Amino acid sequence: MKSILLLFFVVFANYSFAQVHRLGGSFSNNTTGLPITGYGSLFYSQFHPGAEVFYEYKLNKKEVNQFWIKGTFGGYYHRFFQTALRLQLDVDYRLAFSKFVALDIALGGGYLHSFTDYQRFKLNNQGDYEKIHGITGRAQFVAGLTLGANVALVKSDPDRIRLLIQFRTLMQGPFVANYVPLLPVNSFLLGLSFPLKPGKHETTLK
């Protein structure tokens, strides 16, 4: 955990001079299932809510082919087996078709702490199983892929508020070493992002 936090600090400290900084957040639905092919179930299966906040900055000055670094803190509640908190770092490639619409693809990973929501038992000295009380959690890693669109909501100032529509697959592990070592979690996210310096345009694209 300490090494991951140190990585976040070093990366953001080294690029504190980045030209464009944005802050945002999103809400999500999260289900387990096959990566990418399981996205459809996000719209008709159970609802497992999540939320996150993020900070991102642009690495280059190109207007069409953009590269961003994004740090995210968030979590979700899955009522069948866990509540999860996550700290993640992503590298995001953004293809801008105009100043109003862009497509995103991001790769990243980080730290996840899982709090189990099912009953747990342990064997006591008398040979009987007794229920474990209190909050139990364990450290895990996550790595995955995010696909989405980035759309301006204010025509007169496209960078002021941007709508994020994203699908994401994260592989979580080790989950159950002898049964499900990697657990795929699919997410559909809707969010907003805002510039940290309002009024500064990111692009001259039409």
The N- and C-terminal alpha carbons lie at a distance of: 44 Å
The gyration radius over C-alpha positions equals 19 Å
Shape: elongated
User: Which sequence of strands runs across the widest sheet?
Assistant: 1-2-3-4-5-8-9-10
In DSSP terms (H or I, runs of 4 or more residues), the helix count works out at 1
Number of β-strand runs: 10
Can you walk through the features of this model?
With 206 residues, the chain is mainly β. The chain has one helix and ten strands. Strands 1-2-3-4-5-8-9-10 form an eight-stranded antiparallel barrel. It has a two-stranded antiparallel sheet with strand order 6-7. The longest helix has 13 residues, at 2-14. The radius of gyration is 19 Å and the shape is elongated.
Q: Brief description of this entry?
A:
The chain is mainly beta and 206 residues long. The chain has one helix spanning 2-14; strands at 21-32, 49-58, 65-78, 82-96, 101-116, 121-123, 129-131, 137-152, 162-173, 183-195.
Sum up the structure in keywords.
two-stranded antiparallel ribbon, 206 residues, mainly beta
Topology:
Elements: H1 2-14, E1 21-32, E2 49-58, E3 65-78, E4 82-96, E5 101-116, E6 121-123, E7 129-131, E8 137-152, E9 162-173, E10 183-195
Antiparallel strand pairs: 1-2, 1-10, 2-3, 3-4, 4-5, 5-8, 6-7, 8-9, 9-10
